[in-house]
Amino acid sequence: MYQAPLADVLTTLTHMVGADALAQTDLYNEASPDTVEALIGEAGRVCSEVIAPLNRVSDLEGARLENGVVRLPSGFKGAYDQIAEGGWVGMSGSVEHGGLGMPITVMSAVNEMLSSACLSLSLVPILSQGAIEALEKHGTPEQQERYLPKLMSGEWNGTMNLTEPNAGSDVGALRTRAEPNGDGSYAITGGKIWITWGDSEAVSNVVHLVLARLPGAPEGTRGISLFLVPKYLLDANGEPGTPNALKVVSLDHKMGIHGSPTCVMAYEGATGWLIGEENKGMACMFTMMNNARLAVGLQGVGAAEAAYQHALSFAKERVQGRTPVGDGNGPIADHADVRRMLLSMKAQTQAARAIAYDCAYHLDLARAANTAEEREAASRMGAFLTPITKAFGTDTGIEVANLGIQTHGGMGFIEETGAAQYLRDVRITAIYEGTNGIQAMDLVGRKLSVDGGETARAYLSRIAQTAARLQAGAQTQAIGNALAAAVETARSATDWMLNAAGNDRNAGAVAYLRLLALVGGTHYLGRAALATGDPARIELARFWAETQLPNVPALLSQASNGASGLYQIPLEAL
Amino acid sequence: MYQAPLADVLTTLTHMVGADALAQTDLYNEASPDTVEALIGEAGRVCSEVIAPLNRVSDLEGARLENGVVRLPSGFKGAYDQIAEGGWVGMSGSVEHGGLGMPITVMSAVNEMLSSACLSLSLVPILSQGAIEALEKHGTPEQQERYLPKLMSGEWNGTMNLTEPNAGSDVGALRTRAEPNGDGSYAITGGKIWITWGDSEAVSNVVHLVLARLPGAPEGTRGISLFLVPKYLLDANGEPGTPNALKVVSLDHKMGIHGSPTCVMAYEGATGWLIGEENKGMACMFTMMNNARLAVGLQGVGAAEAAYQHALSFAKERVQGRTPVGDGNGPIADHADVRRMLLSMKAQTQAARAIAYDCAYHLDLARAANTAEEREAASRMGAFLTPITKAFGTDTGIEVANLGIQTHGGMGFIEETGAAQYLRDVRITAIYEGTNGIQAMDLVGRKLSVDGGETARAYLSRIAQTAARLQAGAQTQAIGNALAAAVETARSATDWMLNAAGNDRNAGAVAYLRLLALVGGTHYLGRAALATGDPARIELARFWAETQLPNVPALLSQASNGASGLYQIPLEAL
């Protein structure tokens, strides 16, 4: 059973990322290392003891739609109440509206642990946090006052309503309409699909954030506005009153995350209110979405951690054949190929975690740093690391869960074992909130070029500094040498991307993103090795460098092939 | 819906592998290209039209144990009857006992198509074929006469009973007992798990091949014998008579292949007969197992082909956003990253298919070649290619099915779409019949060193010849150059493996196997390009070389790291 990896989480925050520095800022001066450790420790305890035991129940029972009401797996309501009572939904929300005012970094650590414990349930706070941030940034004071406290307390939950059958990755194609009612509200009409936690019996109201088009709005993404559409309209006391004209039509049958209701929603002239400006819905949506992309990357990390622990526990107990070390009677973890899989799982999980926490840290600095210049630079770094966090975190979740099944041998394919569920559950994370291909295109098309490559070069310079420090240590010299060479390769890849045409960039985007993640991963594992001097951390960094950095030249090659080779075979000949 | 890829299958046989040469041998002189094409065409038609439509039914209904009888998904019985009537169970069995006497190569093509259509159902003929080969090689004439015709006709099916709860990869740990009854038969007592198609309503008898220990047998694999244990004892007419003392205790709940009953079996003094010599059961088992490993590799290829077709069909129809080519209104297949996934799926599938067919071809030559020397060399080449076929074929199945889900975006996670099932089903193929880690160890520990590397070097020399031919063509020169360099890297890796200590080999085995598969894959795709001059085949070989061969140096590095780095972190610190 999952045990919250508190030591790894804190080492990542302190030594890989340096997030303790946040306590020195005015904004986060209450986030002292002691406070952070206490918060994470308590959240970890609930995740391990209360939520993780529900994970298999979530898979077996699933969410069900009964007479228009979404019923949840046994125990979900009680577990969700503990999440809410812990203050974890509004963990980084403003104190003014009932949040804890903690850094996003700390919230991210909690989100990771929730995701390890139960991916289905972790989606409730994650989506509410997206709605909270959208309302904090774009809502009117009245909207904030009426909705934020209940969202932060977890009494209500938030959703993102983007997708329609013909508008998935192409959000601009959506057709849901918003007609002014003449009283400041709008009548929202249309169908939405894949609405995560679109309804449930765990909360007393649902705050839908819905993308729709105003009459006469321009085509495409420039004609989309964001609306707040509650399940129940609020009465004079701000409590849920009259049911709104919306409903859950059906739930999808999915490969995994069965406990998370994925709703087909119908809005039938439902009453909603504009959030932000007319036709600026995409900007509001990206506020939610960037938040959610970080959180989804952490879902991948959380699934990876849980799958790793699960496989490690099996590999330490299962005995098969003579082992090549010790007295030969050890468990299968002593077989070279099993040990290789375990180390690979551990190293990948730690690298993905560090990238995600570093992303969160820069989003915090973007709020809390002293100067506008520092805040701007941090904001760009956070934005740059967001697609890497999302894609590499979720790819890692899938890869580690897959290795976890393999470590179990035949038992891995038997559902009772639990290993298969991690893969079935985490598989969606590489798709939702923008597929990993979309993330890679966001990286090379927007995040990389928005400042002419300055942020990317700054990131690589930080890594080069770590390489130099590693090179200076007797035990870490080889890691440093390999990393220094990899940074140069990453610089070449970055230069190539900055000079390439749009579709050439897109053709190599996935490889380029992975290249940065592998180089970045060495940096974080190396920093932990340097800071702690812990032999196990030095060896993990060495293992990572030996097994992952050799892939970097191949990724440069794949990143810089260009697009033309992809179109030489006509589509009809595929 | 799956369409049998007849053109690709025939091109692979003829141009990548050169299997038409078999018709020149005495043994296979009836396997003329026309006959082969007709057989494969008919099998492909049944797979596409009759079996593939059952694949989702198989997943939804699954096999069920009702009052001791295994009930099958709707339509399975009728579909299986068509497989049997086509002669495909006994396709490569001896004509003397009712088989078609066709090459294993042709049977492999049929097995691949069956696997594309329905992985669950494909297991019946695959396991029967293993039993047939074991009886042909090791059975007494009486055993052959009584059991082979019914197995070949498909009236009965065969199973492999190896695994016990504490004896999985370590077969030598098994505890099932065989006590002589004094009349030439034995009483078999013990429990077996993961017995694929251990019972069903589709057949009138089940021929269990069961590994067990004789009284006083040596410990480990040297004390294991193989027994034939029918579900029903045969009466004087050779028809199923008295029920034997064995039963299905339960069926496992699995991640996939729900239509395939995976049985927990209890043998309670069941009557069985020795196959082969006492305590030589492992040799007999490996006869079954090598056959099954080729077939399982082809399950991976089949799943990959089906998942590719499924994703391609979606990507050709689904429209999202402006595309970067043509008039910009194309389907998502025109987006660079989607096109990259499709090409990657296609190329990997073709490479894995060619390796598997080449493995089968050498197993055929091992029977049919003119001289003992040629037969011996072919036998070793077939044995060498078997673990590569199994591991790379099934890794390809998983990777392509995973890309298939990704190509579908959110639809890929919805079970109704069917993309998820391919991944859930194919996931087991990397585990059963020896995990892919075991395959890699078999390659470096046995197949590579049995002749001091002679077979490996011969394989690489064949590839080097293809490289030279590619280098000589204007359009294929770059592919040839890349392949020539990759062959040298493969030679270095092979030399390293031959000189390394056992556990150092094991530590790098998975990487080494993949390295050989990537280099081999280029050889086959290159041969098709050279032989046909088809621009699409030249481009596919070029795409493969550009995207896969850059991984070869990384794989050399990973293959030759040695084992010691894996054990630097103590197990308790993981």
Secondary-structure content class of chain A: alpha+beta
Major sheet of chain A: size, sense and barrel closure? 7 strands, mixed
What Rg of chain A, in angstroms, do the CA atoms define? 24 Å
Largest interface: A-B, 89 and 91 residues
Distance between the termini of chain A: 46 Å
Shape, per Cα inertia axes of chain A? globular
Give the helix level of chain A as a range of percent: 55-70%
How many strand units of chain A? 11
Run of helices and strands of chain A: HHHEEHHHHEEEEEEEEEHHHHHHHHHH
Mean pLDDT of chain A: 97
Oligomer: homodimer
How large is the share of residues in beta strands of chain A? 5-15%
| Number of H- or I-type helical stretches of chain A | 17
* Unreliable residue runs of chain A: none
What does this structure look like?
Two copies of one chain form a homodimer. The first copy, chain A, is α+β, with helices and mostly antiparallel strands and about 575 residues long. Chain A has helices at about 5-15, 35-50, 55-60, 75-85, 105-115, 120-140, 140-155, 280-315, 335-370, 370-405, 420-425, 435-445, 455-470, 475-500, 500-530, 535-550, 550-560, and strands at about 65, 70, 155-160, 175-180, 185-195, 205-210, 225-230, 230-235, 240-245, 245-250, 260-275. In chain A, strands 3, 4, 5, 6, 7, 10 and 11 form a seven-stranded mixed β-sheet that branches. In chain A, strands 1-2 form a two-stranded antiparallel ribbon. The longest helix of chain A is centred in the middle third of the chain and has 37 residues, at about 280-315. Chain A is globular. The two termini of chain A are about 45 Å apart. The model of chain A has no long low-confidence stretch (mean pLDDT about 95).
